[in-house]
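= Protein in question =
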Amino acid sequence: MFAQVLLPVVLSILCCFPLVGRAFAQEIKQPLIDQGRTLYLTYGCAVCHGKEGTGDGIGGKNMHPPPTNLHQRKEYMHGSKREDIVFSIKAGVRDGDSIMPSFAHLTPDEIEAISHYVVSLQDQ
């Protein structure tokens, strides 16, 4: 009886937990993402990467290669994982005429927030 009636119910409930966990995690991260967007705009990331992160900022017009379109994971030079983005923010990036300076002067919390915002752009 258990295997025929209750087991499917129990399994269907357990299958929902990853979805609930992901939604809860996103809910927790949203304030961090919002803070990251504010810092992204405040510290001038948008000057090169563009207001929406598409790589079309005024400061990057003459760069070759152009600044990374943050929505396109394959364009990230040092990887698109959050840890890779933290590294790029701290160390900077240089490739040809494209130069992203180091932002190591930012606090770890600020870099963390910006990295969460940048990762959130990848899903759009």
Notes: The domain at 32-121 is CATH 1.10.760.10 (Cytochrome Bc1 Complex; Chain D, domain 2). The longest strand covers residues 93-95. The first helix runs from residue 2 to 42.
